[in-house]
UniProtKB/TrEMBL annotation:
Lineage: Bacteria, Bacillati, Cyanobacteriota, Cyanophyceae, Synechococcales
Cofactors demanded by this protein: Zn(2+)
Keywords (A to Z) from UniProt: Aminopeptidase, Hydrolase, Metal-binding, Metalloprotease, Protease, Zinc
Gene name tied to this protein: pepN
Top EC group: hydrolase
Entry protein name: Aminopeptidase N
Family note: Belongs to the peptidase M1 family.
Matching InterPro entries: Aminopeptidase_N-like_N, Aminopeptidase_N-like_N_sf, PepN_Ig-like_sf, Peptidase_M1, Peptidase_M1_dom, Peptidase_M1_pepN, Peptidase_M1_pepN_C, Peptidase_M1_pepN_C_sf
UniProt catalytic activity: Release of an N-terminal amino acid, Xaa-|-Yaa- from a peptide, amide or arylamide. Xaa is preferably Ala, but may be most amino acids including Pro (slow action). When a terminal hydrophobic residue is followed by a prolyl residue, the two may be released as an intact Xaa-Pro dipeptide
Length: 873
């Protein structure tokens, strides 16, 4: 059982000292790094208080206050902390000299070695592995950093802020030094240092005010050619933030470093972003269209943090969504503006439903603002990020854009240079939106329930049609979808709606009106045109206006109508998703609804005619079935193998029924797939979707064409070809996989996608294939990307992972125990593959339970144990 005490929001006490400035000196040797910190410390109160500093795996060499060396018992020292028992009551200088060993640090926290370079990851609690410090986000300081190292081993020495000096040491010409200064106060989790052999690609950006910003991206030798997309993405983000939020970059330099061994996607360290190399190194030959857009989005996300996260940070880690939810909202808006608002909304909703909604229903469910945690690393979740972003989106909808931006401006003006809370943000938003007026259109306390309550709200909708007066009466009722059946908490749920006439060419009778559900039950009256005889068709939660699930009395013909006629991208797509879920549900209950299947296939054929040329990306999206997690959520007792089998059979049916139409479209698309991203991405997306359906339908010529397309100059086409062959497990699949491997075996970023493909595709050889991948000479146990590729891919190999003998689960448990020894953060996140075990049929449930017990009995980290115990209990 866990022995680590949980940390509670209710126990928060502000740190009793200010640390306005820190000077850090790093002396990098061959087997250790000597760190000297000099902190100016100001007690906040006159009363005496112990000075408590955190430290982890640090060797203390000396400690002094105002030049006087301290001796025991003036301080106490353990493996986790350093305590000054009676510090001065007025401002003083604390100097600590210590030693760390980054060369044997496999946790990827603090300072560690990656491919010959030293790099850092300090969020959330990695700084305590570098030097003794409070290591909490509400302690903000101005940093000056000196780094010294052997010039040939570490020619590049980087830290936050602007470069102030560089040169060789007078005492030793083989060593050199750099001094960096960050003029803006920041919490220690934003500290960064990189030292190693790196090449740089330089560019510049001129702000709207005419300031010149130097951009530098640092990569390993040979990777320079893959940085153009990252540079362009950064410049777009800088321009967008100035144009939309009026926020200009505040330093003279902006640096990005690509690192292979990195737990996160990227880290927004002030002025020195450190990125997982997968999210920097890319062009259309090495990355798919979706990956290029993802990279553009992540680079923007980390840049946007400069204001929403860095200049204003979170007071404590319970406020994590303050910076992450807001910044995800900003990066989603950025992508929407650059590409397609409707398609981006569908992408975000699909992700939310398949991951965050599943998290909300599972044992690791937590509020956007949790009340307690054991390991904060376990709370970097879809709830904090994506659900947090949805709350900001609702606020924008409720306030209107003009008022929303007024509120954002006041928040930034008020809290710049400080650490804030969720409530600070919400109150600033409302105050800025309405100035001194007190006419907020919604109940603020009820809205804050979105932050405090876990679970997904569910809305029940019923209609009655008054044909005499042409009035549609609609009732709405809300409940939170949690284990607590009597939870009657009232939320503020904005509902965008339209309704369409069945009689007048599908014209909207009411369009994009806003209804706010802020009581357990509330009613809406929609006046339609006089003389309307039939009830109009209601289109609800347009643009996915609230992160809820809903159940309405719309009938199948209503959904078919919306699938063909709705002018809102999300609502049209959602109607199709509902119809496909219904088809698959009836199939899985052995009650095939052939009439519905026939109607839906005909609707697809009509959709093809209208969208084939005008919007190929949307067409591809409309004919893609719901995600696996969504399908699992339809059943109280989940049979994963059967769900997978029926979903494949249904896709075979679609492929066979629209075979002729798909053949014609595929032929027409071939001349349109070679345009440079973002041009041509719709055509490439649709061609890949068509290949998948035709390949499943047994079209041998298409399957052979897919093998030939593995060497296509577009990675999107190459990976689409692999995907089309993936379910088949035949000699063509094998041939295509081998071709792809031989093309990309020297590129570790691309090769991760091959590892994931091999681990997730059906195999007759079973778990031996996964073992072989893990012992492959190109597999890197220290790279989280590689671990996620193989073990994450294996968890998506439905027949293998969920095999009824339980061997897939036990294998996963064994491997996660191994991963936990070197990287607890990666292990604790991956163990969540077992989180839905109680929803499975008995045979699967028993197998996962046995594997969870095995994990729980093992000597695992507190990170992983916290998650395992939550899942078990």
């Amino acid at each position: 059982m866990s022995t680590q005490k949980s940390i509670k929001l209710s126990d928060y006490v502000e740190y009793p000292f200010l640390i306005p400035s820190i000077y850090l000196d790093f002396d990098i040797g061959t087997d250790c790094v000597v760190v000297q910190s000099s902190m100016i410390i100001k007690p906040k109160k006159k009363e005496s208080s112990k000075l408590v500093l955190k430290g982890n795996q640090i060797k203390l060499l000396s400690i002094s206050i105002n030049g006087k060396e301290l001796k025991l018992p003036e301080y106490s020292f353990s493996d986790k902390s350093l305590i000054i028992n009676s510090p001065p009551k007025s401002e003083f200088e604390l100097k600590i000299r210590s030693q760390i060993d980054p060369f044997r640090n496999t946790s990827l926290e603090g300072l560690y070695l990656s491919s010959g370079m030293l790099t850092t990851q300090c969020e959330a609690e990695g700084f305590r592995r570098i030097c003794f410090h409070p290591d909490r986000p509400d302690v903000l300081s101005r940093y000056t950093v000196r780094i010294e190292a052997e010039r040939t081993l570490y020619p590049i020495l980087l830290s936050n802020g602007n470069e102030k000096y560089s040169g060789n040491l007078n005492s030793n010409n083989l060593r050199h030094e750099f001094i960096w200064e960050d003029p803006f106060p920041k919490p220690c989790y934003l500290f960064a240092l990189v030292a190693g052999k790196l090449n740089s690609v330089s560019d510049t950006y001129i702000t709207n005010k005419g300031r010149l910003i130097d951009i530098r991206i640092y990569v390993e030798k040979g990777d320079e050619k893959y940085t153009k997309h990252a540079v362009n993405s950064l410049k777009k983000a800088m321009k967008w933030d100035e144009d939309n939020y009026g926020l200009e970059y505040d330093l003279d330099e902006y640096k990005i470093v690509a690192v292979r061994h990195f737990n996160m996607g990227a880290m927004e360290n002030k002025g020195l972003n450190i990125f997982n190399s997968k999210l920097v190194l890319a062009d259309s030959k090495t990355a798919t269209d979706d990956e290029l857009e993802r990279i553009e989005s992540v680079i923007a996300h980390e840049y946007f943090h400069n204001w929403t996260g860095n200049r204003i940070t979170c007071r404590d880690w319970f406020q994590l969504s303050l910076k992450e939810g807001l910044t995800v909202f900003r990066d989603q808006s950025f992508t929407s503006d650059l590409h397609s608002k409707g398609l981006k909304r569908i992408e975000d909703v699909s992700f939310l439903r398949n991951f965050q909604f599943a998290e909300d229903k599972g044992p690791t469910s937590h509020a956007v603002k949790p009340k307690e945690y054991v390991a904060i690393d376990n709370f970097y979740t879809t709830t904090i990020y994506e659900k947090g972003a949805e709350l900001i989106r609702m606020l924008e909808l409720l306030l209107g854009k003009e008022k929303f931006f007024r509120g954002i401006n006041l928040y930034i003006k008020t809290f710049d240079g400080s650490a804030a809370t969720t409530e600070d943000f919400i109150n600033s938003l409302i105050k800025g939106a309405y100035l001194e007026e007190k006419n907020c259109p919604f109940d603020l306390d009820k809205f804050l329930n979105w932050y405090y309550k876990s679970g997904t709200p569910k809305v029940y909708i019923n209609q009655s049609w008054d044909s005499k007066n042409s009035i549609l009466n609609v009732s709405f009722e809300q409940k939170i979808d949690t284990d607590k059946t009597n939870d009657n908490t009232e939320m503020v749920i904005p509902i965008l709606y339209s309704c369409y006439s069945r009689e007048k060419g599908a014209n909207p009778l009411a369009e994009n009106n806003l209804f706010v559900l802020d009581k357990n039950k509330k009613y809406l009256k929609i006046n339609t045109l006089p003389g309307e005889q039939q009830a109009p068709v209601l289109s609800l939660f347009r643009c996915f206006s609230s992160p809820v699930v809903w159940e309405s009395d719309l009938v199948i013909d209503d959904y078919l109508f919306l699938f063909l006629n709705d002018n809102d991208y999300f609502s049209r797509w959602d109607s199709g998703q509902y119809l496909m879920r219904e088809i698959l549900k009836t199939r899985l209950c052995n009650k095939n609804n052939f009439s519905l299947e026939h109607k839906f296939i005909n609707a697809i054929k009509q959709t093809i005619k209208s969208l084939e040329i005008n919007d190929p990306f949307f067409l591809a999206t409309l004919i893609t079935i719901p995600g696996f997690a969504e399908l699992e959520s339809l059943f109280e007792k989940v049979d994963p193998i059967r769900i997978y089998s029926e979903s494949i059979d249904f896709q075979v049916l679609i492929g066979n029924e629209i075979l002729q139409e798909l053949r014609v479209i595929a032929k027409n698309l071939f001349g349109k797939i070679d345009h440079e991203w973002p041009m041509g991405k719709g055509e490439r997306k649709l061609l890949g979707t068509i290949w998948f359906y035709l390949s499943l339908a047994g079209e041998r010529d298409v399957q052979k064409n897919c093998v030939e397309s593995i060497s296509h100059s577009s990675m999107t086409i190459s990976r689409a070809a692999l995907g089309a062959l993936k379910p088949l497990d035949n000699n063509l699949t094998e041939e295509a996989s081998n071709l792809f491997y031989n093309l990309w075996k020297e590129n570790p970023v691309v090769l991760d996608s091959w590892f994931a493909y091999e681990a997730s595709r059906p195999h007759k050889r079973g778990i031996n294939v996964i073992e072989k991948l893990l012992s492959h000479p190109k597999f890197d146990w220290k790279a989280p990307n590689a671990i996620r590729a193989v073990l994450g891919g294996f968890s998506k190999n439905i027949d293998l992972f969920h095999s009824l003998d339980g061997q897939g689960y036990l294998f996963m448990a064994d491997k996660l125990i191994e991963v936990d020894k070197i990287n607890p953060i990666t292990a604790s996140r991956m163990v969540k593959v077992f989180s839905k075990w109680k929803t499975y049929i008995d045979k699967n449930k028993e197998g996962i339970y046995e594997s969870l017990l095995k994990l729980n009995k093992a000597n695992i980290s507190s990170n992983t144990r916290e998650v395992v115990e939550l899942i078990l209990n």
